[in-house]
Amino acid sequence: MNSMSVSPGGSSPSRLSRRKFILGSGVAAAGLAFYAGEIARHEIDLVKTTISVRDLPGAFHGFRIAQISDIHLDEFTEPFFLEHVVHRINELAPDLVLVTGDFVTRGSLTFIDSHHAAYRCAEILSTLKTPQVYTVLGNHDVSVSAPLVIEALNSKKIPVLVNQHVPIERGDSRIWLCGSDDAGTRRPDLNLTIPEKPDGPVLLMVHEPDYADTVIRHPRGKSVALMLSGHSHGGQVRIPFYGPLILPPMGQKYVMGHFRFDGIPLQLYVNRGIGSVGLPFRFDCPPELTLHTLQPA
User: Model pTM greater than 0.90?
Assistant: First the structure.
C-alpha cells in the first residue's frame, strides 16, 4: 500500500511549490514594474554622434547640436526630470539645442491641465543657457492645441518653426535650419519649409521619422543633409531579441538611431525621447539626450 507524505500544515509539497512560484512571479513582476517605471524611466542616456556634412563651412566644423524630443510633461515626465535634462544640456554647453516635438500629452489623465503643462515645460526649457534654441510641434501638441503650445513656448522666447526656415550664422557662413508642421496630424509644406536655393547645408526637423521617405522624394529634399526626428520613443518598451512591443504610426520604419540612404546626402537621426506615453514605463530603451557634432564629409 502506497502512502503519501503530508506537510504538518496539511498542504502537499507540490501545492507549496505552486504557491512559491506564484508569489515569486508576483514579486518579480512588481520589481520589474518598479524598475521600468522609476529607475529606467529616469536613466538619461547621453548619445554622441558625428555627422559628416558635405560642403560644411569651416566655421561650422565641430559645431555641436543637442537634441531632445518627446518631453510629455506632466504625463508622465515630472518637472524635476526635465530640469535634470536641462542641467545636463547646460553642462555640455552645445552651440544649438533642438527639440523635436511633443511637449505635452494628448488625453492626459493627470490633474494638471494641458495649459499648465505647456507653460511649465516652456518655463523649464527657458533655463537652457545655449546661444540658440529651436523647436517643432509633435502630434500630441497639435491634438492638445497647437496655438497653446506655440504661445507657451513663444512666451519664453523659444521659437517654434512651422513650415519655416532660419539661417544659423557664424561670421559670413551659414547653415539653414528648417522645421516642418507636424507630419502625422497636419500637412507639412516642404516648399515653404526648405529654402529653394540654400547657400549652405540644410538641417530639417520633422517630428515623425517615417516622413523621411517623403522628403527623399521631394525635389527640395535633395538639399537636406540631416533630418532630426523623435516620435517613436524607440518603442519605449523593448524586449531583448524581439524589439519594440508597440510603435506609433509614422514611427514604425525608422525607429531609433542614425540612418543613411544610398545615393543621396540625406541622413536621418531618430531620438528616443525623454518621456513616455500610455504607461509610465521604459525598458531596454532609456530616455535619450543626443549630442550631434558636425564635421565635413
Answer: no
